[in-house]
Protein 1
Amino acid sequence: MFSLPPLDAILSSAHVVSLPMRVKFRGVVTREVMVFEGPAGWGEFGPFLEYDDEESSRWLASALEAGWLGYPAPVRDWVPVNATVPAVSAAEVPAVLGAFDAVHTVKIKVAEAGQTMSDDAARVGAVRHLLPEAKIRVDANGGWSVDQAVSALRMLSVFGLEYAEQPVATIAEMAAVRTALSGSVLIAADESVRKATDPLAVARAGAADLLVVKAAPLGGVRRALEIVAEAGLPAVVSSALDSSVGIGAGLALAAALPELPFACGLGTVSLMAADVATPSLVAVDGGMEVRNVVADPELLAQFAAPAERHDWWLDRLRRTYALL
């Protein structure tokens, strides 16, 4: 970890914004994040509201890396990006996909609480009907049991799955699902990496075929690069429902990886009805050009969070800073 900037320097440039969503995603209809500017650029501190201070401190480390250290040198100037379909009804799929440009790969949320496997099959089937040539991946966010995951993925495999992301919650369950499917569906680890005290445990256990890595939850671009190198598995870079500033960190990570065999999950700004940058960091022709993102002062003012929410985030920043 580099030398921390003074807390006052962070607080003095901090902006808290409240960004409305086009469609509910992970239960979120309005996304709150904090952005601030350091000598190396803009950083975003946006752990979800339910995350505790210890987990949130890794997100702060990532934001400070962006603002005060900058990113590693890229090895590519263009990154392929997937579209994302939340757990909407099959009828809503065309409208969701309409927000994305030139879709070649789609990640589809499944295993939503209160929904059934039939709902999942209808949603995935609707995507396949609209995009017969696209690569399709599904993400359960650990929502299935082992038996449910094996049954669901065997059923969904008729649509042609690139991989299934975090079908079950634990590493042992991931290994069991992977064994049961015998390679018919590749298994990707997300929460088993970014929420684990040991992000390499899933690789040692042989519980996944690839890793999903996110810069902010892992403590920054450099730490994520170290984890991928030590794990020795292919990696997909994803985002955590960030503004364009936060997506910029994911883009920097994807640009710096020695190999990038999969399209990345960095297209979630297209699910938002507002952003902090002009132009927004969204995919064009199925990918993104690697570039720096600068927050727009007019947008920061237009979407500024209410005073009480601004104060709440400043308190959160002070607490998490003390843990670094």
Protein 2
Amino acid sequence: MSLPQSPYILYSDGNGNIFEDTSLYVVGRAGWDAFPVPDEDWIELPDGGNLYELPGRRGIGIDVKTGEMRLCDKGWAVAAFIPPAHTGLYLAAYETTQDDAPTLPLFCYTAAGWYDNKFYVPAVRIEDDIRQECAGYDDTKVATGAVELLKNYPHNRLVKHLMDNCCNTYHCPAARNFALGRWECPVPASPACNANCIGCISFQPEEETIVSTQDRLTFKPLPEEIVEFTVPHLLNAPYPIVSFGQGCEGEPLLMWETIRNSIFEIRRHTQNGSININTNGSKPDAVKALCEAGLNSIRVSLNSAQKHIYTKYYRPNNYEFEDIVESLKVVRSFGGWASINYFVFPGMTDTEAEYEALRKLIKESDLTMIQWRNFNIDPDWYLGHIGITETSEIMGIKQMMDLIHEEFPLVKFGYYNPPIERIRGEYESDFAH
């Protein structure tokens, strides 16, 4: 559905109230620049989306009468958080007008507007899997499930961490699904990391201006603790996945021996379901050992397929960009499913150079899937940290997706790790294409 016109800009009064300014059409941002958003790119803000005020920042819009771009001087700029399964096409366009404007917390900042009594965002639904839909969570059932798990595994430190912290404190969708006995079960395994990502959600140095959104795992789980709750999950949950590597931990490949031993033991009990690892892909030899034990899929996170941009963000210790490509290749050589967790940043992701680098990565690694994920980071802070001072020529996120799909029709697009049924081709839930 295409809107008959651009939505109006939104602003906040600084007290949690949001208004529309009908003298300005909202625009989107890519890189450092503001652009009009094509009318067909707007969708209604999906259920589970939120609006944020951006303190110290004024929104940029197009004057309804003159057609000129100008700032909205009525209040602070507003951005949207769009829920999982959706990929944003433009960031919120604003100018920082206060010297002491705080660095924005680690969320995504999609453009948002108001039209005909509804909020709109420039986004595409990339996946029809419903596993993290807001409407699918009954808080009472989640709480009951958490209590039940804690009762059933009274001495299991990992179950305690997943329920007390991830489920009940952070409201992590994966941990909540585990409490409900369904789908993807998170298995954090590593308190340490071998990257120093500038936007790390579980660890930020004290001198940094932002805080991590959650605390990192503080212990090394034993294989027995992992096996104790993952085997019942694989046996009983619908479309079950056991997933190592979560936002509340470091890099799981640093604990590869523990994970390998856990996989061996899990597979001694059941061949059900899929075993996945979310990782930075830094240790191809460890990935090989996990594949030999029975790993079904890997998801490697990256902000860019270009080595120099990747390295400035991840700041890796003792590994290089080439290692992550090798890890993807290893999983494919075992017939496994290889995804990238691709942080989408309009104006960076859709440059010509990035497009060419992504094509090269797909060909080199025989990639199975791209998970087009929204990048949770302050746009100015990110571009400043990686030293990008001007916007390159861009093609638009949607066009880039179309070009990639056209050239690589077998590469799946999505947002989540697939269950074994999808890996085996027993059902297809590819939404966007």
Protein 3
Amino acid sequence: MKDKSVRIIISKKSKHNGGHHGGSWKIAYADFMTAMMALFLVMWLIAKASPQELQGIAEYFRTPLLVNNNGGKNISDSESPIPGGGDDVTKQLGEEKNTPINSKSENLESKQLEKIQFIETARKINEVFEIDPRLQKLAPNLIIELTELGLRIQILATDDQPMFDIGSAVIHPNMQEILFALAPILNSLPNKITLSGHTDERQYVTGDRGYSNWELSADRANASRRELIAGGLDSSKIIRIIALADTVGLNNPNYSADANRRISLLILNKAAQQYIEEENNMTGIDFLKQLQPSKPE
């Protein structure tokens, strides 16, 4: 009979010196660095994300297969905190364009910064009129106030410092000095400007049938516009000239009726500027459409 003994094969591993481990440590080190990079990337994303976005991301990873199994919004939807996925990430059928939640806070922050800029502009104007001896005596002729539309600067006549003569649109030297001082400050701002002319309540003999306070207030506004441009203001910054005649009184007990012979400069905020620019670009057809009552749906 043949020998049926079992043959045992013993394999021995070759021993290496303690200081040499091959190249496996490089792979482990690369994996460690990749993990660290991913960790720091996740920490950075978490720090940048809003609370609403964090909640949405957490909800997605808690139930990643919920949409696939039960139906619902695709991750390609605009409301999904996870970008990508879906059959077409650009498709928006059935969706309404929603304003991001944090856009309200951004708009509020933008308005606050704009308000601070206007206050700083008012401070610069006051500083210029305090430093220059020629302008110190004209400082009482200025009223600077913050309004819902922007920063308004009113240049008005006083008993001893006229800006315009009665019934005249000729610029007085006092007005010229003020406009020349304001021009570089206004030019340094990105905001557009409207210019309004005013008159006192004195009427022409012919009333409104001939040359009247309407024409006079328009002439005063345009005369001031020309002086601002001569003082260095970019003409493109003025987007509207307004003639108000005597319809908008100063209504300030500290000033006489003569103070109504004045000019109002309005540095527009972004919202007011956008409204006026859109209105200026509106065609006659668009204007008529806007006047038509909307049809009930």
